Amino acid sequence: MSGITRPRNLLAGLALGLLTLLVLFTSHDRYRQKSFTELRIAVVEHTPYHDEVIGGVLAALYEAEADYDLYRDRLHRGFDEILSDVYPDSPIRLDELVPALDEGKYDVLVIVTGDEKFWGGRDDLLDAMRRSTSTHIICLVHEIEIYGNQKDLAMIAPFAEQERLTLLTLGQHSARTLKTKLSRWAWERGEPMWENVDVVHFAPVFKIPASAKLETPVIECSNTPEDGPPSRVAILGRIHQSNRDYEGIFRDLVIALTADPKPWGYDSVPYTAEQLASLPELALETSAPTHRFVPLEHADPPAFTLHLIGEDLGLVAIPFELTDAEHPIVRIHSNIEYREFYDILGAMDLILPAFSTFTYLDARSSASIPAAVIARTKVLASPALLNSYTYLSPPAYVLAPLSVSEISSIALLRQGRDPWLGTFPQALEKEIDVMSAGWVGVSASSSASWFGNRARASASNWENYERRLAKKNREVWRDMLSRTRGNNGLDSKIEQAIEVMKVDE
Fold it and tell me: How many degrees, rounded to 5, is the angle at CA 267 between CA 264 and CA 269?
């Protein structure tokens, strides 16, 4: 009798187990739709960099209605005021993360700077992440173009092997390149785990809280109409030739001003003998200028100025013609608080990418693009740039050819000519195709052209664009977190079902 009963119990147990697994798999989608409030998330930044990226991550989690803590020893240049809407508390010190992970406090850990080169001296944090095998790691990679050496792979391999790794980037081009690298690692190394790693991108943008806005602006807003020719133009980033092509921009600007200063709002005036005597630095110039550029009275549009916003290490030489003591055309804003940074940026008419390398279009993501969106300032954008930073959409940019210098495009704008249609008169359909392919989309009736009765950079257009962008970020993060939590939860339930099968057996 017992010989017959045991097989029956075994068959019953197997049937129950299979049925349990079937139920688990068919109910997986329903499990993923639960609220995020039960998911415990930690956002970690151990370097002194990437405050703005922290803001983008926290804003996205806030939009996704997630529950999160921030681990960071301190925020820099008043960025805590910028975060006040999405994280009103003080960050938790990094030393507290190790015991929190050992206690199993978090389901998901978002590493804001995941490049191994920045992790010197914090092996304690990495070891805790490796021990916390139930915690999914979302690793944000920045320097995509050089990512993937032996140390990079050794850092994330344990998480990939345990199928608890997601790689995150700040642009679609970065995600494309990183995904290709993963495939190459799988092929070259014969390691299938790399093929199973998700690569996700999002737009690291956020809203500036009303409480963080300056009562007295650093720079009064330009008198230029919202869709008028640009007078104040900025380049963002560390003032170094390896990041931005300052030398090329300065060279093109001096050539344009020398050829005809009036379209730029200036007149060329000879130096007086007294002025030359008071400027001994002119003697150091190999070809000392004989004229200075003085703003025209009642210039329309106003006289052009170029603003460099970023850390100034004194490594870039600015031509003497652009640094007149009384009427400087190039102006530097360095070592400023974040409130001032966004205030100055918001007073600009246009942001120049001014990239000194194509890397920012096919691998690494520039921080200047989302900063412009946050400040509601247009970016001079080529189709190649829009194909990379796919979250850009009207009214956040004005279209210009990649093959035309940025100073030439500004010259066209100041003459009342559209830089894209001025170069390609029959290319309006191409322009609409470029915009329609964007991340957040745009109706075909809109346009990124600066002039005409088309897209206007009004507050209502910006608000509509920001809502679409926030919605897209929310969808991306909810999907990413759902798959993260869904996999962990499913694994746990399968383990429980196996235990039931063992008991029944």
Answer: 145
Beta-bridged to residue 201, according to DSSP, are 169
Average pLDDT over residues 349-378: 97
Give the span between the Cα atoms of 372 and 402, in whole angstroms.
19
Q: Given this model, what pLDDT does residue 440 score?
A: 61
Pairing state of beta strands 266-270 and 165-169? Answer: unpaired
The span from the CA of 240 to the CA of 238, in Å, is 6
pLDDT of residue 283: 56
* 364/362 Cα distance (integer angstroms): 7
Q: How confident is the model at residue 427 (pLDDT cuts 50, 70, 90)?
A: low
Q: d(Cα 145, Cα 178) in Å, to the nearest integer? A: 9
d(CA 258, CA 268): 8
HSE-CB of 93 using CA atoms within 13 angstroms: 3
Given this model, what pLDDT does residue 9 score? 53
CATH 3.40.50 assigned to 229-458 = yes
**C-alpha to C-alpha distance for 366 and 491, rounded to whole angstroms:** 38
Beta bridge partners of 71: 44, 92
Q: Report which DSSP code applies to 319.
A: P
CATH superfamily of 36-207: NAD(P)-binding Rossmann-like Domain (3.40.50.720)
User: Of 16, 24, 23, 20, whose CA–CA distance to 505 is shortest?
Assistant: 16
Packing angle of the helix pair 246-259, 406-414 (nearest 10 deg):
40
Structure tokens that stand for 140 in this block: 């944000």
Helix, strand, or coil here: 239?
strand
Instruction: Please tell me whether the peptide bond between 301 and the residue prior to it is cis, using omega within 30 degrees of 0.
Output: yes
Domain with CATH 3.40.50.720 in the chain: 36-207
Neighbours of 456 (CB within 10 A): 16
Among 191, 135, 123, 190, CA closest to 166: 135
Chain centre to alpha carbon of residue 361:
13
Q: What does the alpha-carbon distance between residue 335 and residue 374 come to, in Å, rounded to a whole number?
A: 19
- pLDDT at position 217: 79
Which helix or strand (DSSP H or E) is residue 292 part of? strand 291-295
| Contact by Cβ (8 Å): 294, 328 | no
